[in-house]
Amino acid sequence: MASQYPENRVLIIMTGGTICMRPSPEGLVPARGFLEAGMKPNPSFNDGSKPDPLPVMTDANTEEYLPSLRTPLSTYSRHVRYTSFEFPILLDSSSISSAGWSQIANTIRNNYSRYDGFVVLHGTDSLAYTSSALSFMLSDLGKPVILTGSQASIFALQSDAVDNLLGSLIIAGTFTIPEVCLFFNEALYRGNRTTKVSASSFSAFASPNCDPLAKISAMGAEVNWNLIKRPTAIAGFKVIPDLDTAHVACLRIFPGIKPEMIDGVLRVPGLRGLILETFGSGNAPSGEDGSLTSIIRAAVKRGIVIVNVSQCQTGSVSPLYAPATVLGNAGVVFGHDLTTEAALTKLSFLLALPGLSYEEITKQMQISLRGEMTETAKLQFSHPASGLPSLTDQQSVFTALGYAIAAGNLESVIQLLNGDQFDLLGAKDYAENTAVHLAAVGTNNDVLRELLKRGASIHVRNRAANTPLFLAGKVGNQEAVGLLREAGAHLHIEEVETVGKRNHDM
Ligand code: ASN
Fold first, then answer.
1. Which pLDDT band, with edges at 50, 70 and 90, does 6 fall under?
2. What family, per the record (predicted)?
3. What's the pLDDT score for residue 387?
4. Do 211 and 256 belong to one domain?
5. Which residue of 135, 326, 417, 497 could cross-link 370, Cys pair, CB 3.0 to 4.6 Å?
């Protein structure tokens, strides 16, 4: 039965997981026939219109027609028409590997032109890893790929399966969000920002360093379009399969860890990369006599890429404290706010790319490829829309410093200056104001004092040829005038002349 309303097509790719599980003598195991047994009887998934089967490429060369269903009319006055392709072997997601990720990616590629969106059903255990991996493997993606699963089976009486699946299906069939996303418990997250935080709660995932891309409620979906990343290259969608997970390792630092343990891992034959989960903002013990640092430096010399990520959920790995700086100096890459899942899959992805040098891999690990990390430039404010001139890293961080100074936020100023990689004390804004100029007309003279204590110049002039002292006097900030004078500041001769002339004119 045809409908007068439009419909979008969504391919559900079933890989396994609790969502499709049924009891067995060995415990819960994935069961086949999900569409027929789990979705068809439920009126939320089936408007009873008995639509024709849909074509699915079950591999690169084989097209099969599979039974399809259609949802009732959504809030967006459209139906979602869908079918489900079940992988030949359904997994508990704890058993998925790089081969499984390629299988998902290739299925999306083979069916890309046939569907408006994709929903991947997957167990929750490794869902954040798969979401991260796919985000790197699907290059120049232009359609939604939404991964979901559930904490209880769709066949259980009390389950999150229906809500998670219905939410994913409606978003994938309504909004062209060109990202790999994870939908769970009413929120759509960027897949490579997620981590599993509960083994039993329906709120099983968190995205600690990135807000949800969308939230759903009784009113429908509210998409945060400002956050959505779009492919900006003029290039078609392609799949980059086969991540090199076989040659990467992940190690969690703990108090008392023996340097030999780390050396043991770093000497695993064929190892090419290590994700080091460190304390706080990237700190690790240096070992007696710096032995741990030597071990790490030697491994870096052997060409092993070591990435520093935090054991903390929020915040960022940076050279804030000496131990992190020591690691950085030994050649360890700062992983900023990457999750372990994203760091591991990103490194596996980069290691599998043909012809990338060690330098290129370490460089790419520190920039955002798919929105997986907050770039320093984006810590405090957003970039202008693409097409407009963009800022250099120094300009971006300096702008962040400028905002902190304007707000009189001494703590942020200290934090930015401690992690300074961009010569912030020498940097200037568009009007050639230095940090001292900004502080001279700021609201907190302790900020000015801090800058002076760090050796910031008091003599540099801005584009209007003014010194900080001149500006402080102009706004009547007498305390700053005193402080600057105390530090040896004086008006530039041209300022003296101008002031003199103006006085004379008046
Ligand atoms: N063990 C299950 C899996 O990851 C857990 C789940 O899906 N809730 O496949």
1. confident
2. In the N-terminal section; belongs to the asparaginase 1 family.
3. 58
4. no
5. 135
Domain boundary (205, 222, 239) is at 239
- For residue 2, is it within any domain? no
The ligand 1 atom at the shortest distance from the C-alpha of residue 152 is: 8
d(CA 81, CA 52): 10
| Structure tokens given for 234 | 């003029």
The number of domains in the chain is 3
Mark whether 221 and 282 lie in a shared domain. no
Complete DSSP assignment for 245-298: GGGEEEEE--TT--HHHHHHHHTSTT--EEEEEEBTTTB----GGGHHHHHHHH
Atom of ligand 1 nearest to the CA of 149: 7
3-state helix, strand and coil shares in percent for the chain, rounded to the nearest 5: 35, 20, 45
Does residue 164 have its Cβ closer than 6 Å to ligand 1?
A: no
User: What pLDDT score was predicted for residue 499?
Assistant: 64
Residue 456 belongs to domain spanning: 394-505
Interaxial angle between packed helices 358-365 and 340-352, expressed in degrees from 0 to 180 and rounded to the nearest 10: 150
Within this chain, do residues 202 and 113 fall inside the same structural domain, yes or no? yes
Separation of 180 CA from ligand 1 center, angstroms? 19
Cα 262 from Cα 445, distance rounded (Å): 47
Percent of the chain with pLDDT over 90: 75
Q: Is 130 in the pocket of ligand 1 (CB under 6 A)?
A: no
Task: Check pocket membership of 92 for ligand 1, CB cut-off 6 A.
Answer: yes
* Structure confidence by residue, pLDDT tens digits, 73-113: 999 889 999 999 999 999 999 999 999 999 999 999 999 99
Distance CA 7, CA 411 (A): 53
Nearest CA to 343 among 269, 257, 245?
A: 245
Contact assessment for residue 167 and residue 139, using Cβ atoms and an 8 Å cutoff:
no
What are all long-range contacts of 445-452, with beta carbons under 8 Å and residues at least 24 apart?
A: 445/477, 445/479, 445/480, 445/483, 446/410, 447/405, 447/408, 447/409, 447/410, 447/413, 448/480, 448/483, 448/484, 449/483, 450/410, 450/413, 450/414, 450/417, 451/413, 451/425, 452/483, 452/484, 452/487
Distance of alpha carbon 147 from alpha carbon 17, whole angstroms? 12
| 223 shares a domain with 298 | no
**Per-residue tokens: 294:** 């030597």
Kind of pairing between the strands at 63-66 and 248-252: unpaired
* Sheet-wide strand order for 248-252: 248-252, 273-278, 305-310, 333-334
* In a domain? residue 389: no
The reply to whether 462 and 359 lie within a common domain is no
- What's the whole-number average pLDDT of the chain? 91
Cα of 127 to ligand 1 centre, how many Å?
9
Q: Which atom of ligand 1 is nearest to the CA of 92?
A: 9
Q: Answer whether residue 147 shows pLDDT above 80.
A: yes
